[in-house]
Amino acid sequence: MTTRSMGTGARVAVVAPPVVVAAVLGVVAVTVGPRLPGRVATHFDGSGTPNGWGSPWVFFWITAVVAVGAVVLAVAALRFRDRRTAAMLTVVLDLLAGVLVSVWIVIALSNAAGDPTMPWWWTIVFLVVAVAAALPPALALVRSAPPVPAHDVEPLDVAPDARVAWRARIGSRWFAAVGAFVVLAGAWATWLTATEDVGVAVFTGALLLLAGLSVLVLARVEVTVDRRGMRLTSTWTRIPLMRVPLDRIESCGYEDVSPGQWGGWGYRISGRGVAFVVRSGPGLVARLRGGGARMVTVPDAERGAAALGALLAAREAA
User: Fold this and answer.
1) Please, are residues 266 and 276 in contact by the beta-carbon 8 Å criterion?
2) Does the residue 100 lie in any domain?
3) How many structural domains is the chain composed of?
4) Full domain range(s) for residue 192
5) Domain contains 3
6) Is there a single domain that holds both residue 24 and residue 77?
7) Is residue 261 assigned to a domain?
8) Is 211 in contact with 182 (CB distance < 8 Å)?
């Protein structure tokens, strides 16, 4: 994959928004910070009336770390080979920085003025600021990204009556760790809140348990290619995650996949189709009749595509 050079305008579009957000935070902190009391209104109800109080500086330092992190990521993104994934990461951090910085500034200004209120419509302002900070870098990075490398593969050379099958297993330690952590967090949250509100404890615990188990299901999967088509199954539960009948597949191949091409890691649904992404690298792609695709990242994607190609060729010859 060759990396396209970025012009000066594109580089400015990537770096300038988080730099401006961080700079405005610093200016407000220096000019307004000395006038802030030790305890300020930090939380507000639906009408904008404060109902929570605390130090303004704990929130400030958290916000400052996120804002500086967004600047560092923006500078690093200029050197990323995989600019689609860089765009995805910058969107997340720039959105978070935009919201946190604008919230802290409004809290600081309203408390310094002696009228700490925050009506609900300020939420719209925060979202607009966040989108303004995140959209230009993402667009600049995506537009400068090279085309997605796609490869066709020669089908396996087999006898007409041969039975063709291919299987591979894919695992993700990160998925396993995150799933286990969420399950444990659910148990801890249930125990922590059980004495106060049993209903909340059960709901919270069940929600986190379900989320954790859903991630654990994806931690170890098996992809199979045979006369039935392409299937993705959880090896721990045998739950089918993806089924693509052979008669729905028009052609196949493999891609040099990056998470940003499909919208992130895990089980993804996007305009391109459905994908299971655990890492950057080769991915087996089944292109469907009528458009769309199904993709699974797997180290042996080229051989899987060759086997699937042989099955498609046998179908056409039948």
Assistant:
1) yes
2) yes
3) 3
4) 173-217
5) no
6) yes
7) yes
8) yes
Please name the helix (run of DSSP H) or strand (run of DSSP E) that holds residue 17, with its range, or none. Answer: helix 8-32
Q: Which of 250, 214, 255, 211 is nearest to 230 (CA)?
A: 250
Q: How far apart are CA 282 and CA 318, in angstroms?
A: 31
Q: Is the domain of 14 the same as that of 136?
A: yes
CA angle 298, 299, 305 (to 5 degrees): 70
Q: What pLDDT does residue 1 have?
A: 47
For residue 36, being part of any structural domain is answered with yes
165 residue type, one letter: A
d(CA 270, CA 262): 7
Interatomic CA distance for residues 274 and 292, integer angstroms: 8
Q: Indicate whether 311 and 200 sit together in one domain.
A: no
Residue 256 has φ and ψ, to the nearest 5°, of: -85, 95
82: nearest Cα among 285, 293, 280: 280
Strand 220-226 to strand 166-171: parallel, antiparallel, or no bridges (unpaired)? antiparallel
Instruction: Round to whole Å and give the CA distance between 318 and 309.
Output: 14
Report pLDDT for 165: 93
pLDDT of residue 4: 59
Q: How do residues 100-143 score in pLDDT, each as one tens digit?
A: 999 999 999 988 888 787 777 888 999 999 999 999 999 999 88
Counting as low any pLDDT under 70, the low residues of the chain are: 1-5, 194-197, 200, 318
What is the per-residue DSSP string for 51-108?
Answer: EEEE-HHHHHHHHHHHHHHHHHHHHHHTT-S-HHHHHHHHHHHHHHHHHHHHHHHHHH
pLDDT at 44: 78
Who's near 98: CB < 8 A, 6+ residues apart? 21, 126, 129, 130, 131, 132, 133, 134
**Whole-number Å distance between alpha carbons of 232 and 184:** 27
Long-range CB pairs of 126-131 (<8 Å, 24+ gap) are 126/98, 126/99, 126/102, 127/99, 129/21, 129/98, 129/99, 129/101, 129/102, 130/94, 130/95, 130/96, 130/97, 130/98, 130/99, 130/102, 131/95, 131/98
Closest CA to 227 of 162, 284, 173, 181: 162
Rounded Cα–Cα distance for residues 312 and 251 (Å) = 7
Residue written as token pair 């249930």: 190
